[in-house]
Design brief:
There is one protein chain. The protein contains 16 helices and 13 strands. It has 436 residues and is α/β, with parallel strands linked by helices. It folds into three domains: 47 residues, Transferase, Pyrimidine Nucleoside Phosphorylase, Chain C (Transferase, Pyrimidine Nucleoside Phosphorylase, Chain A, domain 3), CATH 1.20.970.10; 248 residues, Nucleoside phosphorylase/phosphoribosyltransferase catalytic domain (Pyrimidine Nucleoside Phosphorylase, Chain A, domain 2, 3-Layer(aba) Sandwich), CATH 3.40.1030.10; 90 residues, Aldehyde Oxidoreductase, domain 3. Bound molecules: uracil. The site of uracil has 6 residues, from helix 9.
């Protein structure tokens, strides 16, 4: 006999597992409007406290994926592989990774998000390119994945609408920080894109959603197991986010830096994370047998100029100015510059990366509400990072600002995010571990 919604809620509240059919029926009822928001919210809170089994999480992910369109990319040859990052500060990897991987013959369909809170978003960085549109119809997105090898768009109303509505409820009912709900939210959107495989970048540290290696491992393991349970290939890298990735924070500055990677002149840490994730994508896509072979192919795509050429074609196909890939002067520039100097001799022992993200948001580089406008030109470029030795007065960061009134508060916020020490801090690996 079928259980009613209150009976399902009671079962979850008491820690019992629901069947896949029950979960699917519940999500379908929510999308139809038969399950009201208060019942969905009660469900989210019950899951928050009681968790879900892997089978339940797979069922929730698939039901949420099927609440909208699942893109058919079967006309595109080869295995389609995407990357998802749990988000960080200065994380512009997608912008260089997608063209590099596509240039090696693995199509990269990518539906990305906007920045919210202290983290940036790929869509905002792309929109720093004059003319670039992230709002393409699904049919055009599917065409471009085939024609160019990659296409980067924003979430549309057709893709996983159950997630959009559920996330809005979670956001205001203290139920975001639940691993099964996060997993179903991330994967339902990714599985709707038309992918065969997914490489995850789970960030850990002061600028990440997951602050400790244990929490990052828990999320990475759940994501990999549930994606595989849903029939997709998946691996996760856990990577360092206790300092900004690369040197730039802020939309135009980050996009310029990501394009530097395509020309072989990107910062070492950004290049290394891009190569690690990209090599896993090439192995998953079947064009490399090993990670080492994948790295060699990616490097060759850069030195031959093919990766930059894919980026130019992608930018042009999405309405942007393709000169942006080669020429930073195409981007809007912030009119005011200031420098943050080291207050004493020593080592940079820590950067409160969350605080750096918040400092960027305060300038207008990010948003606190979904409808806030973005200032693409403002941000920071770090000349020094965690682990570097500095002398008093050395420039630690250059600030790119909209007007003079931002100088003093931005210098203060950024200055307070730095911790200097009198000895070198312990080394932290950039790539913590790979799961799956
Ligand atoms: N990102 C998502 O897309 N969903 C979550 O629930 C958390 C982070």
């Amino acid at each position: 006999m079928q259980r009613s919604v209150p009976e399902l809620l009671a079962a979850k509240r008491d820690g019992h597992a629901l069947t896949a059919d029950e979960i699917r029926g519940f999500i379908e009822g929510f999308v139809r409007g038969d399950v009201p928001d208060y019942q969905m919210t009660a469900f989210a809170m019950a899951v928050f406290f009681r968790g879900m089994t892997r089978d339940e999480t797979v069922a929730l992910t698939l039901a949420m994926r099927d609440s909208g369109v699942v893109v058919d990319l079967s006309h595109v040859k080869g295995l389609k592989v995407d990357k998802h990052s749990t988000g960080g500060v200065g994380d512009k990897v997608s912008l260089c990774l997608a063209p590099m991987v596509a240039a090696c013959g693995v199509p990269v369909p990518m539906v990305s998000g906007r920045g919210l809170g202290h983290t940036g978003g790929t869509l905002d960085k792309l929109e720093a390119i004059p003319g670039f549109s992230v709002n393409l119809p699904i049919a055009r997105y599917a065409e471009l994945v085939g024609e160019v090898g990659t296409c980067m768009i924003g979430q549309t109303r057709e893709l996983a609408p159950a997630d959009k509505r559920l996330y809005a409820l979670r956001d205001v009912t203290a139920t975001v920080e639940s691993v099964p709900l996060i997993v179903a939210s991330i994967l339902s959107k990714k599985l709707a894109e038309g992918i065969d495989g997914l490489v995850l970048d789970v960030k850990v540290g002061s600028g990440a959603f997951m602050k400790t290696p244990e929490r990052a491992r828990e999320l990475a393991t759940a994501l990999v197991e549930v994606a595989r349970g849903a029939g997709k290939q998946c691996v996760a890298w856990i990577t360092r986010m206790d300092r900004p990735l690369g040197r730039a924070v802020g939309n135009a500055l980050e996009t310029i830096e990501a394009f530097d990677v395509l020309h072989g002149r990107g910062p070492a840490d950004l290049t290394e994370v891009t190569l690690a994730l990209g090599a896993s994508m090439l192995v998953m896509g079947g064009v490399a047998k090993t990670d080492d072979e994948g790295r060699a192919l990616l490097r060759e795509a850069v030195t031959s100029g093919r990766a930059a050429e894919v980026a130019r074609r992608m930018v042009a196909a999405q309405g942007g100015d393709p000169r942006a890939v080669d020429d930073p002067s195409v981007f809007a520039q912030a009119p005011v510059k200031a420098v943050l100097r080291a207050p004493a001799d020593g080592w940079i022992a820590a950067i409160d990366t969350h605080a750096v993200g918040v400092a960027g948001v305060t300038l207008g580089a990010g948003r606190t509400r979904a409808e806030d406008p973005i200032d693409h030109a403002v941000g920071f470029v770090f000349e020094r990072n965690v682990g570097d030795r500095v002398a008093k007065g050395d420039v630690v960061a250059t600030l790119h600002l909209r007007d003079e009134s931002q100088v003093a508060p931005a210098l203060d916020r950024l200055g307070r995010a730095l911790t200097l020490s009198q000895s070198a801090p312990a080394e932290v690996p950039l790539l913590h571990e790979r799961i799956g």
